[in-house]
Protein backbone atom coordinates (compact mmCIF):
# COMPACT_ATOMS: atom_id res chain seq x y z
CA UNK A 1 0.00 0.00 0.00
CA UNK A 2 1.28 3.41 -0.90
CA UNK A 3 0.94 6.05 1.78
CA UNK A 4 2.01 9.59 1.02
CA UNK A 5 2.42 11.98 3.90
CA UNK A 6 2.41 15.63 3.06
CA UNK A 7 2.85 17.56 6.28
CA UNK A 8 2.49 21.00 4.72
CA UNK A 9 -0.90 20.87 3.09
CA UNK A 10 -2.52 24.16 2.25
CA UNK A 11 -5.83 24.16 4.09
CA UNK A 12 -7.20 27.35 2.56
CA UNK A 13 -10.80 26.36 1.92
CA UNK A 14 -11.07 28.82 -1.00
CA UNK A 15 -8.49 26.81 -2.98
CA UNK A 16 -9.69 23.95 -5.18
CA UNK A 17 -10.08 20.94 -2.90
CA UNK A 18 -7.27 18.45 -3.29
CA UNK A 19 -7.77 14.72 -3.41
CA UNK A 20 -6.67 13.18 -0.11
CA UNK A 21 -7.74 9.57 -0.59
CA UNK A 22 -7.37 7.58 -3.81
CA UNK A 23 -8.41 3.96 -3.74
CA UNK A 24 -8.07 1.87 -6.88
CA UNK A 25 -9.24 -1.71 -7.44
CA UNK A 26 -8.86 -2.66 -3.79
CA UNK A 27 -9.46 -6.32 -2.93
CA UNK A 28 -8.80 -8.42 0.15
CA UNK A 29 -9.46 -12.09 0.60
CA UNK A 30 -9.70 -14.15 3.74
CA UNK A 31 -9.85 -17.85 4.40
CA UNK A 32 -12.80 -19.36 6.28
CA UNK A 33 -10.63 -21.89 8.05
CA UNK A 34 -7.63 -21.05 10.25
CA UNK A 35 -5.65 -24.24 9.51
CA UNK A 36 -6.07 -23.84 5.76
CA UNK A 37 -5.25 -20.16 6.07
CA UNK A 38 -1.97 -20.99 7.84
CA UNK A 39 -1.18 -23.62 5.22
CA UNK A 40 -1.79 -21.11 2.39
CA UNK A 41 0.45 -18.66 4.29
CA UNK A 42 3.29 -21.19 4.32
CA UNK A 43 2.74 -21.96 0.61
CA UNK A 44 2.80 -18.25 -0.21
CA UNK A 45 6.03 -17.79 1.74
CA UNK A 46 7.67 -20.70 -0.06
CA UNK A 47 6.51 -19.51 -3.47
CA UNK A 48 7.64 -15.99 -2.63
CA UNK A 49 4.17 -14.54 -3.18
CA UNK A 50 3.30 -11.41 -1.30
CA UNK A 51 0.62 -8.76 -1.49
CA UNK A 52 0.00 -7.10 -4.81
CA UNK A 53 2.54 -8.81 -7.02
CA UNK A 54 0.07 -10.67 -9.16
CA UNK A 55 -3.62 -11.33 -9.35
CA UNK A 56 -4.58 -14.71 -7.98
CA UNK A 57 -7.72 -16.75 -8.08
CA UNK A 58 -9.44 -17.84 -4.90
CA UNK A 59 -8.30 -21.16 -3.46
CA UNK A 60 -10.70 -23.52 -1.69
CA UNK A 61 -12.22 -21.94 1.46
CA UNK A 62 -11.04 -18.46 0.48
CA UNK A 63 -13.47 -15.59 -0.18
CA UNK A 64 -13.26 -11.94 -1.10
CA UNK A 65 -14.04 -9.81 1.97
CA UNK A 66 -13.58 -6.73 -0.21
CA UNK A 67 -13.55 -6.89 -4.01
CA UNK A 68 -12.47 -4.31 -6.53
CA UNK A 69 -13.30 -1.09 -4.70
CA UNK A 70 -12.30 2.27 -6.11
CA UNK A 71 -13.09 5.79 -4.97
CA UNK A 72 -11.50 9.16 -4.44
CA UNK A 73 -12.15 11.56 -1.61
CA UNK A 74 -11.34 15.25 -1.56
CA UNK A 75 -10.92 17.54 1.40
CA UNK A 76 -14.40 18.46 2.61
CA UNK A 77 -16.00 15.22 1.42
CA UNK A 78 -17.45 12.54 3.66
CA UNK A 79 -17.94 9.02 2.35
CA UNK A 80 -20.50 6.80 4.11
CA UNK A 81 -19.73 3.10 3.96
CA UNK A 82 -22.85 1.05 4.58
CA UNK A 83 -23.82 -2.60 4.29
CA UNK A 84 -25.08 -5.49 6.37
CA UNK A 85 -22.96 -7.37 8.93
CA UNK A 86 -19.93 -8.96 7.30
CA UNK A 87 -20.23 -6.85 4.13
CA UNK A 88 -16.56 -5.83 4.31
CA UNK A 89 -16.75 -2.30 5.76
CA UNK A 90 -14.29 -2.77 8.63
CA UNK A 91 -11.91 -4.70 6.39
CA UNK A 92 -11.87 -1.77 3.97
CA UNK A 93 -11.26 0.68 6.82
CA UNK A 94 -8.42 -1.44 8.18
CA UNK A 95 -6.78 -1.45 4.74
CA UNK A 96 -7.21 2.34 4.51
CA UNK A 97 -5.61 2.71 7.93
CA UNK A 98 -2.74 0.42 6.98
CA UNK A 99 -3.62 -2.22 9.57
CA UNK A 100 -3.89 -4.93 6.91
CA UNK A 101 -2.49 -5.20 3.40
CA UNK A 102 -4.75 -5.60 0.37
CA UNK A 103 -4.29 -8.54 -1.99
CA UNK A 104 -4.96 -6.32 -4.99
CA UNK A 105 -5.24 -2.61 -5.60
CA UNK A 106 -3.73 0.57 -4.33
CA UNK A 107 -4.44 3.12 -1.62
CA UNK A 108 -2.95 6.60 -1.68
CA UNK A 109 -3.51 8.78 1.39
CA UNK A 110 -2.27 12.34 1.60
CA UNK A 111 -1.75 14.16 4.86
CA UNK A 112 -2.32 13.05 8.44
CA UNK A 113 -4.62 10.10 8.86
CA UNK A 114 -6.52 9.63 12.13
CA UNK A 115 -8.68 6.62 12.73
CA UNK A 116 -11.20 5.44 15.27
CA UNK A 117 -11.68 1.86 14.21
CA UNK A 118 -11.89 -0.71 16.96
CA UNK A 119 -12.71 0.02 20.56
CA UNK A 120 -9.40 0.75 22.29
CA UNK A 121 -7.38 0.06 19.13
CA UNK A 122 -4.39 2.35 18.88
CA UNK A 123 -4.14 2.65 22.66
CA UNK A 124 -1.60 0.91 24.82
CA UNK A 125 -3.78 -0.55 27.59
CA UNK A 126 -1.19 -0.29 30.35
CA UNK A 127 -0.43 3.37 29.67
CA UNK A 128 -2.63 6.13 31.05
CA UNK A 129 -5.02 8.13 28.89
CA UNK A 130 -2.60 11.08 28.98
CA UNK A 131 0.39 8.93 27.92
CA UNK A 132 -1.68 7.47 25.10
CA UNK A 133 -2.53 10.96 23.85
CA UNK A 134 1.21 11.66 23.56
CA UNK A 135 1.84 8.29 21.88
CA UNK A 136 -0.90 8.83 19.32
CA UNK A 137 0.18 12.40 18.66
CA UNK A 138 3.73 11.24 18.05
CA UNK A 139 2.52 8.54 15.63
CA UNK A 140 0.62 11.24 13.73
CA UNK A 141 3.83 13.22 13.43
CA UNK A 142 3.25 15.94 16.03
CA UNK A 143 6.13 17.21 18.16
CA UNK A 144 5.91 17.04 21.95
CA UNK A 145 5.38 20.82 22.01
CA UNK A 146 2.50 20.56 19.54
CA UNK A 147 0.89 17.81 21.59
CA UNK A 148 1.39 19.87 24.78
CA UNK A 149 -0.70 22.59 23.17
CA UNK A 150 -3.50 20.16 22.33
CA UNK A 151 -3.59 17.82 25.31
CA UNK A 152 -5.87 19.98 27.48
CA UNK A 153 -8.36 20.43 24.60
CA UNK A 154 -8.40 16.67 24.07
CA UNK A 155 -9.01 15.93 27.76
CA UNK A 156 -11.75 18.56 27.90
CA UNK A 157 -13.42 17.25 24.76
CA UNK A 158 -13.36 13.67 26.06
CA UNK A 159 -14.68 14.84 29.45
CA UNK A 160 -12.56 12.28 31.29
CA UNK A 161 -10.20 14.58 33.19
CA UNK A 162 -10.80 12.72 36.44
CA UNK A 163 -9.53 9.46 34.91
CA UNK A 164 -6.90 10.74 32.49
CA UNK A 165 -4.02 9.34 34.55
CA UNK A 166 -5.59 5.90 34.94
CA UNK A 167 -4.44 3.01 32.66
CA UNK A 168 -6.67 2.81 29.58
CA UNK A 169 -7.33 -0.89 30.29
CA UNK A 170 -9.52 0.21 33.21
CA UNK A 171 -11.62 2.57 31.08
CA UNK A 172 -15.25 1.77 30.29
CA UNK A 173 -16.15 1.27 26.60
CA UNK A 174 -17.65 4.75 26.47
CA UNK A 175 -14.52 6.30 28.00
CA UNK A 176 -12.32 4.56 25.40
CA UNK A 177 -14.49 5.91 22.59
CA UNK A 178 -14.44 9.38 24.12
CA UNK A 179 -10.66 9.39 24.30
CA UNK A 180 -10.34 7.76 20.86
CA UNK A 181 -12.57 10.29 19.13
CA UNK A 182 -11.09 13.24 21.02
CA UNK A 183 -7.56 12.25 19.96
CA UNK A 184 -8.59 11.47 16.37
CA UNK A 185 -10.59 14.66 15.83
CA UNK A 186 -8.66 17.22 17.90
CA UNK A 187 -5.40 16.38 16.12
CA UNK A 188 -6.78 18.14 13.03
CA UNK A 189 -6.29 15.20 10.68
CA UNK A 190 -6.47 15.54 6.91
CA UNK A 191 -8.19 12.16 6.68
CA UNK A 192 -10.46 10.89 9.45
CA UNK A 193 -11.65 7.28 9.46
CA UNK A 194 -14.49 6.44 11.84
CA UNK A 195 -16.05 3.02 12.38
CA UNK A 196 -19.29 2.12 14.12
CA UNK A 197 -17.59 2.46 17.53
CA UNK A 198 -18.97 5.96 17.84
CA UNK A 199 -22.34 4.40 18.65
CA UNK A 200 -20.90 3.18 21.98
CA UNK A 201 -20.76 6.73 23.30
CA UNK A 202 -23.78 8.10 25.14
CA UNK A 203 -26.17 10.39 23.30
CA UNK A 204 -24.60 13.56 24.67
CA UNK A 205 -21.18 12.53 23.41
CA UNK A 206 -22.44 11.33 20.03
CA UNK A 207 -24.13 14.71 19.46
CA UNK A 208 -20.91 16.45 20.46
CA UNK A 209 -18.98 14.28 17.99
CA UNK A 210 -21.34 15.25 15.16
CA UNK A 211 -20.89 18.90 15.99
CA UNK A 212 -17.12 18.38 15.89
CA UNK A 213 -17.37 16.50 12.59
CA UNK A 214 -19.36 19.42 11.13
CA UNK A 215 -16.57 21.78 12.20
CA UNK A 216 -13.64 19.78 10.86
CA UNK A 217 -15.31 18.48 7.68
CA UNK A 218 -14.49 21.49 5.45
CA UNK A 219 -10.79 20.75 6.02
CA UNK A 220 -10.92 16.98 6.23
CA UNK A 221 -11.78 13.94 4.12
CA UNK A 222 -13.89 11.58 6.24
CA UNK A 223 -14.71 7.91 5.77
CA UNK A 224 -17.59 6.97 8.04
CA UNK A 225 -18.95 3.47 8.65
CA UNK A 226 -22.31 3.13 10.32
CA UNK A 227 -25.48 1.08 10.53
CA UNK A 228 -27.37 4.20 11.54
CA UNK A 229 -28.82 5.64 8.36
CA UNK A 230 -29.91 8.90 10.03
CA UNK A 231 -26.26 9.42 11.03
CA UNK A 232 -25.03 8.56 7.53
CA UNK A 233 -27.50 10.89 5.85
CA UNK A 234 -26.63 13.60 8.36
CA UNK A 235 -22.93 13.86 7.52
CA UNK A 236 -22.12 11.99 4.29
CA UNK A 237 -22.17 13.54 0.84
CA UNK A 238 -21.35 10.32 -0.96
CA UNK A 239 -22.04 6.70 -0.22
CA UNK A 240 -20.88 3.16 -0.97
CA UNK A 241 -23.21 0.26 -0.28
CA UNK A 242 -21.27 -2.98 0.11
CA UNK A 243 -22.73 -6.45 -0.16
CA UNK A 244 -20.48 -9.46 0.39
CA UNK A 245 -17.45 -7.28 -0.32
CA UNK A 246 -18.80 -5.97 -3.63
CA UNK A 247 -20.05 -2.44 -4.35
CA UNK A 248 -23.83 -2.50 -4.90
CA UNK A 249 -24.26 1.27 -5.02
CA UNK A 250 -21.80 4.11 -5.24
CA UNK A 251 -22.49 7.77 -5.71
CA UNK A 252 -23.48 11.12 -4.34
CA UNK A 253 -27.15 10.32 -4.12
CA UNK A 254 -27.00 9.29 -0.46
CA UNK A 255 -30.78 8.75 -0.17
CA UNK A 256 -30.79 6.29 -3.08
CA UNK A 257 -28.00 4.28 -1.47
CA UNK A 258 -29.87 4.23 1.83
CA UNK A 259 -33.08 3.17 0.07
CA UNK A 260 -31.26 0.25 -1.52
CA UNK A 261 -29.79 -0.69 1.85
CA UNK A 262 -33.25 -0.78 3.39
CA UNK A 263 -34.65 -2.79 0.48
CA UNK A 264 -32.18 -5.53 1.40
CA UNK A 265 -33.98 -5.89 4.71
CA UNK A 266 -37.55 -5.46 3.52
CA UNK A 267 -39.63 -8.59 3.60
CA UNK A 268 -43.00 -9.34 2.12
CA UNK A 269 -44.25 -10.99 5.26
CA UNK A 270 -47.77 -10.26 6.36
CA UNK A 271 -48.94 -8.64 9.54
CA UNK A 272 -47.36 -9.71 12.81
CA UNK A 273 -49.78 -10.13 15.69
CA UNK A 274 -48.04 -9.05 18.89
CA UNK A 275 -50.97 -9.44 21.26
CA UNK A 276 -54.45 -10.95 21.16
CA UNK A 277 -56.81 -11.95 23.96
CA UNK A 278 -59.15 -13.46 21.34
CA UNK A 279 -61.84 -10.82 21.89
CA UNK A 280 -61.63 -9.78 18.26
CA UNK A 281 -59.94 -10.85 15.07
CA UNK A 282 -58.59 -8.55 12.37
CA UNK A 283 -59.93 -10.23 9.23
CA UNK A 284 -58.56 -7.83 6.64
CA UNK A 285 -56.68 -4.54 6.35
CA UNK A 286 -56.24 -2.63 3.11
CA UNK A 287 -55.97 0.73 1.37
CA UNK A 288 -59.20 1.46 -0.42
CA UNK A 289 -58.94 1.53 -4.21
CA UNK A 290 -55.23 0.61 -4.34
CA UNK A 291 -53.93 -2.76 -5.52
CA UNK A 292 -50.96 -3.89 -3.43
CA UNK A 293 -47.79 -5.26 -4.92
CA UNK A 294 -46.06 -7.84 -2.68
CA UNK A 295 -48.32 -6.72 0.19
CA UNK A 296 -47.19 -3.12 -0.16
CA UNK A 297 -49.54 -0.33 -1.20
CA UNK A 298 -47.82 2.24 -3.42
CA UNK A 299 -49.11 5.73 -2.73
CA UNK A 300 -48.17 8.99 -4.42
CA UNK A 301 -46.83 11.62 -2.07
CA UNK A 302 -49.51 14.14 -1.10
CA UNK A 303 -52.43 11.84 -1.91
CA UNK A 304 -55.34 11.24 0.44
CA UNK A 305 -55.99 7.60 1.29
CA UNK A 306 -58.66 5.61 3.08
CA UNK A 307 -57.32 2.83 5.32
CA UNK A 308 -59.83 0.06 5.96
CA UNK A 309 -59.82 -2.52 8.77
CA UNK A 310 -62.37 -5.30 8.97
CA UNK A 311 -62.71 -6.97 12.37
CA UNK A 312 -64.84 -9.80 13.65
CA UNK A 313 -66.14 -9.67 17.18
CA UNK A 314 -65.54 -12.79 19.27
CA UNK A 315 -66.83 -11.87 22.71
CA UNK A 316 -66.97 -8.11 23.18
CA UNK A 317 -70.15 -6.30 24.10
CA UNK A 318 -68.97 -2.90 22.82
CA UNK A 319 -67.14 -1.81 19.66
CA UNK A 320 -63.42 -1.53 20.53
CA UNK A 321 -61.48 1.71 20.23
CA UNK A 322 -59.15 1.52 17.23
CA UNK A 323 -55.89 3.44 17.02
CA UNK A 324 -53.07 3.33 14.49
CA UNK A 325 -49.36 4.10 14.64
CA UNK A 326 -47.12 4.67 11.65
CA UNK A 327 -43.52 3.43 11.83
CA UNK A 328 -40.65 4.04 9.42
CA UNK A 329 -38.04 1.54 8.23
CA UNK A 330 -35.99 1.92 11.40
CA UNK A 331 -39.08 1.26 13.52
CA UNK A 332 -39.18 4.85 14.63
CA UNK A 333 -42.67 6.01 15.44
CA UNK A 334 -43.54 8.70 12.90
CA UNK A 335 -47.21 9.42 13.57
CA UNK A 336 -50.25 8.29 15.51
CA UNK A 337 -53.83 8.11 14.36
CA UNK A 338 -56.10 8.57 17.38
CA UNK A 339 -59.62 9.04 16.12
CA UNK A 340 -61.92 11.20 18.18
CA UNK A 341 -65.60 10.54 18.72
CA UNK A 342 -65.41 6.87 17.87
CA UNK A 343 -68.88 5.55 18.56
CA UNK A 344 -68.24 2.58 20.86
CA UNK A 345 -71.79 1.22 20.69
CA UNK A 346 -72.98 -2.29 21.54
CA UNK A 347 -72.18 -5.24 19.26
CA UNK A 348 -73.13 -8.89 19.03
CA UNK A 349 -70.81 -11.89 18.87
CA UNK A 350 -69.53 -12.68 15.35
CA UNK A 351 -70.52 -9.21 14.11
CA UNK A 352 -68.17 -7.97 11.43
CA UNK A 353 -67.36 -4.27 11.38
CA UNK A 354 -65.23 -2.31 8.92
CA UNK A 355 -63.51 0.87 10.11
CA UNK A 356 -62.35 3.46 7.60
CA UNK A 357 -59.71 6.05 8.52
CA UNK A 358 -58.92 8.80 6.12
CA UNK A 359 -55.34 10.12 6.04
CA UNK A 360 -55.34 13.44 4.22
CA UNK A 361 -52.48 14.64 1.99
CA UNK A 362 -49.77 12.29 3.12
CA UNK A 363 -46.56 14.32 3.32
CA UNK A 364 -44.40 11.47 4.56
CA UNK A 365 -41.25 11.46 2.46
CA UNK A 366 -40.38 8.66 0.03
CA UNK A 367 -40.05 5.19 1.53
CA UNK A 368 -41.83 2.30 3.21
CA UNK A 369 -43.95 2.77 6.32
CA UNK A 370 -45.74 0.15 8.40
CA UNK A 371 -49.00 0.69 10.20
CA UNK A 372 -49.64 -0.86 13.60
CA UNK A 373 -53.28 -1.55 14.40
CA UNK A 374 -54.46 -1.59 18.03
CA UNK A 375 -57.94 -2.41 19.33
CA UNK A 376 -58.60 -1.61 22.98
CA UNK A 377 -61.39 -0.88 25.39
CA UNK A 378 -60.49 2.78 25.21
CA UNK A 379 -57.40 4.72 24.20
CA UNK A 380 -54.40 3.64 26.24
CA UNK A 381 -55.89 0.88 28.34
CA UNK A 382 -57.06 -2.72 28.16
CA UNK A 383 -55.66 -3.74 24.79
CA UNK A 384 -57.58 -6.58 23.08
CA UNK A 385 -55.54 -6.93 19.94
CA UNK A 386 -52.40 -5.42 18.45
CA UNK A 387 -50.66 -6.16 15.19
CA UNK A 388 -47.62 -4.64 13.51
CA UNK A 389 -47.56 -4.25 9.74
CA UNK A 390 -51.33 -4.42 9.49
CA UNK A 391 -50.75 -2.36 6.35
CA UNK A 392 -47.47 -1.45 4.64
CA UNK A 393 -47.39 1.58 2.38
CA UNK A 394 -44.69 2.87 0.10
CA UNK A 395 -44.76 6.59 -0.52
CA UNK A 396 -43.47 7.55 -3.93
CA UNK A 397 -42.21 10.81 -5.30
CA UNK A 398 -39.26 11.88 -7.36
CA UNK A 399 -37.43 13.84 -4.64
CA UNK A 400 -34.71 11.98 -2.74
CA UNK A 401 -35.45 13.15 0.78
CA UNK A 402 -34.19 11.44 3.87
CA UNK A 403 -36.07 13.30 6.61
CA UNK A 404 -39.51 11.83 7.56
CA UNK A 405 -41.56 14.61 6.00
CA UNK A 406 -41.49 16.50 2.77
CA UNK A 407 -43.90 19.34 3.44
CA UNK A 408 -46.03 20.84 0.73
CA UNK A 409 -44.79 24.39 0.41
CA UNK A 410 -44.46 27.28 -1.97
CA UNK A 411 -42.65 30.58 -1.88
CA UNK A 412 -45.24 33.28 -1.35
CA UNK A 413 -42.99 36.30 -1.26
CA UNK A 414 -39.39 37.29 -2.04
CA UNK A 415 -38.40 40.91 -1.65
CA UNK A 416 -35.50 43.21 -0.93
CA UNK A 417 -36.18 44.95 2.36
N1 LIG B 1 -8.96 -11.74 9.92
C1 LIG B 1 -9.96 -12.34 9.30
N2 LIG B 1 -9.87 -13.61 8.91
C2 LIG B 1 -10.86 -14.23 8.23
N3 LIG B 1 -12.01 -13.61 7.90
C3 LIG B 1 -12.15 -12.34 8.27
C4 LIG B 1 -11.15 -11.62 8.99
N4 LIG B 1 -11.59 -10.35 9.20
C5 LIG B 1 -12.81 -10.27 8.65
N5 LIG B 1 -13.15 -11.45 8.08
C6 LIG B 1 -14.37 -11.76 7.35
O1 LIG B 1 -14.50 -10.80 6.32
C7 LIG B 1 -15.88 -10.47 6.11
C8 LIG B 1 -16.05 -8.98 6.22
O2 LIG B 1 -15.88 -8.62 7.59
P1 LIG B 1 -15.94 -7.11 8.07
O3 LIG B 1 -15.58 -7.09 9.53
O4 LIG B 1 -15.14 -6.27 7.16
O5 LIG B 1 -17.48 -6.79 7.87
P2 LIG B 1 -18.31 -5.50 8.29
O6 LIG B 1 -19.02 -5.03 7.07
O7 LIG B 1 -17.42 -4.52 8.97
O8 LIG B 1 -19.36 -6.12 9.30
P3 LIG B 1 -20.07 -5.51 10.61
O9 LIG B 1 -21.17 -4.62 10.12
O10 LIG B 1 -20.60 -6.72 11.27
O11 LIG B 1 -19.02 -4.79 11.41
C9 LIG B 1 -16.65 -11.29 7.13
O12 LIG B 1 -17.12 -12.46 6.50
C10 LIG B 1 -15.61 -11.64 8.19
O13 LIG B 1 -15.90 -12.88 8.80
From TrEMBL:
Keyword Nuclease: no
Example GO molecular function: ATP binding
GO cellular component terms, semicolon-separated: membrane
Source organism superkingdom: Bacteria
Family matches, as Pfam families: ABC_tran
SUPFAM superfamilies documented for this protein: P-loop containing nucleoside triphosphate hydrolases
The ABC transporter domain, residue ranges: 40-269
InterPro entries reported in the protein's UniProt record: AAA+_ATPase, ABC_transporter-like_ATP-bd, ABC_transporter-like_CS, ABC_transpr_TagH-like, Bact_Polysacc_Export_ATP-bd, P-loop_NTPase
Keywords, alphabetical: ATP-binding, Nucleotide-binding, Transport
SMART domains recorded: AAA (SM00382)
Entry's family note: Belongs to the ABC transporter superfamily.
PANTHER family in alphabetical order: TEICHOIC ACIDS EXPORT ATP-BINDING PROTEIN TAGH (PTHR46743:SF2)
Name of the protein in question: ABC transporter ATP-binding protein
Source species: Psychroflexus aurantiacus
Taxonomic lineage from the root: Bacteria, Pseudomonadati, Bacteroidota, Flavobacteriia, Flavobacteriales
